[in-house]
Amino acid sequence: MKNLKYLFVMLIATVTMVSCVDDEIVEKDGPIVVESELKLNEIMSKDVNDNPDWIEVYNMGDSDFDISGYILNDKDVAEGGFEIPAGTIIQSKGFYIVDQDESGIKVSSGGEDVSLSKPDGTVIDYIFVPDMSTNVGLTWGREIDGDGDWKVTSPTPGSSNGAAENTPPILSAEPLTEFMNVYAVTASDADGIASVKLVQMINEGVQSIDMALVDGEYKTTVPRGKVGDVVKYYVVATDNAGLVTYYPENGNNEPAEFTVAGGLEEVVYAGAEAGNRGDVTFSVTPYYPAQVDEIRLYYLKDGEQQDEDNGFDDKHKVELVRNGDVYEGIIPEQETGDVIAYYLRVEYLDGTKTYYPMEEEDDDGNIISDFNHDLGTTWPTYTVEEKTYLPVVDTTVNYTAGPLTSVTFPSNPVPGTDINVVLNYSSTDVIGGARIYFDVGDAPVYVKANKVKGEDDSSFTQTSVTINLKDIVADNGLAIGDEGNKTTFYVRMATEDASGNDIAEYYYGSDGSMYLDDTPGGGTTDQSDAFKADPALWNVLNVQ
After folding, report:
1. Which of 85, 137, 158, 369 could make an S-S bridge to 170, C-beta 3.0–4.6 Å?
2. Which CATH number is 367's domain given?
3. Which of these, 502, 503, 510, lies nearest to 531 by C-alpha position?
4. C-alpha distances in angstroms, 372 versus 68, 87, 240, 306?
5. How far, in Å, are 37, 151, 172 from residue 163 at the CA level?
6. Phi, psi at 339, each rounded to 5°
7. In this structure, are residues 172 and 191 in contact, taking their beta carbons and an 8 Å threshold?
8. Distance of alpha carbon 346 from the chain centroid
9. What's the pLDDT tens digit per position in 140-152?
10. What tens digit of pLDDT does each residue of 452-461 get?
11. How many Å apart are CA 166 and CA 128, to the nearest integer?
């Protein structure tokens, strides 16, 4: 559709005189309409390939008509519409067409008003265009130019609506590929669509699949082929008059085709979000997993090369491990600042190989894609960023009573180094022992760090004690404070009298309360027993 104003003249051998009464007011659905020899005649609201909408006006009169300043609108009033440019004349029995590019009027394919008004705003014609979303490429037009009922019709821009021939369906489709689970096309015809079929030929087999109308498109699930299959196909749309249209054109004699290559449907590698620090784990899901023999991950470390034609073959290979339909493999942790190049190769049971990124060859076997698995400089890369450590989190020990006054953890500990926790407490009480109890891993393994004056810490004072978490190792061999280690713990403090007799034990967790055992060793059940039995009430130590 050209972005121009069109003036069309229809030459009539025998002209029938039409008598029009100016300014006669008639009632219609919608606004009040004043009779005129100018009529809305045909409207395109859903063209193929997103071509612009257009509106056609017809001059029923026996004289040429100057329509300068007349107004077209996608509403039932003139206000805000498109003013037809000065000097625009429709000849007798002629047509004026304006498209969306010029007028700015986009008629909704879901249904919308269209009106034609005089320069003073008086509406002289009006029509509601119905939902045309399933009639792509067809128009809403009058049966007779300027008169008669409106109906879905084949487009006749600039010529008589009565001149429309019975045409084959309008069919719009995109190429089918092996990666489509659902294939969708649009088809429409003024006589109505009788059927739309996808005909698929794989090896010696032929399938004709009926496509169903869903949300304005004809759709079908696409049967899966096997890697290496050559798939030929075409779509045929048939209207109620028996006329047919093919995609591609002449597809029944010259069908489209593609070769099933397979490859990877999804590639995810953990580490990118964290700057590729540490091990980088690739998780990939192949197409046609039942046909996969193996998947390999190849990579080059910083400074290594891959170019066998020139004597370089430094690549490292990782066999991915299958878990259901997902395969996983790891590129080990590399040095900060290193640039790591990689690619993935899928090999199917029949020996077919495909790559990620996709690699394309011409008919002579020459690589024509940007990626070449034999040339390391074309591989995708990632850069290893500096490894930093987040602070220990969720370690605040809440307290409301008893001797404990605060607990201090390091703000940014490095796993594997000293992680010292300082317990501060009131000097008004004589401390019999300060301990942290840990629950490491899934099993209830308790590790206690016992600090008693003079027993194992000569620097012990009456106001604080320091405990080094690095030296505390659970029975399962996992050092508390190691990277990725989540540990639950609680703090226990005890008071003694001057003679060394227990007075009370205080337990501190994460819920803001202090749990008291005021009869240590007495054998009675109290609130501290329930606390010790419920790690959900304890604090959490996370080193990340």
Report:
1. 137
2. 2.60.40.10
3. 510
4. 63, 62, 51, 10
5. 21, 15, 24
6. -105, 120
7. no
8. 25
9. 999 899 998 999 9
10. 544 445 455 5
11. 25
Largest CA distance in the chain: 130
**Statement to judge: residues 117 and 140 lie in one domain:** yes
Distance CA 400, CA 513 (A): 6
Q: Is residue 188 part of a domain?
A: yes
Are 203 and 329 in a shared domain? Answer: no
Residue range 488-542, pLDDT digits in tens: 777 787 777 666 677 788 888 776 677 878 777 666 667 778 887 787 787 776 6
User: Of 259, 290, 307, at which residue does a domain stop?
Assistant: 259
Residues 183 and 154 grouped into a single domain = no
pLDDT at 447: 54
As for how many domains the chain has, the answer is 4
In this structure, the number of other CB atoms found within 10 A of the CB of residue 65 comes to: 20
- Please count the CA atoms within 13 angstroms of the CA of 399 that sit on its side-chain side: 22
Q: Which of 259, 283, 315 is the last residue of a domain?
A: 259
Residue 425 CA to residue 397 CA, distance in Å, equals 13
What is the 3-state secondary structure of 326-392?
Answer: EEEEEECCCCCCCEEEEEEEEEECCCCEEEECCCCECCCCCECCCCCCCEHHHCCEEECCCCCCCCC
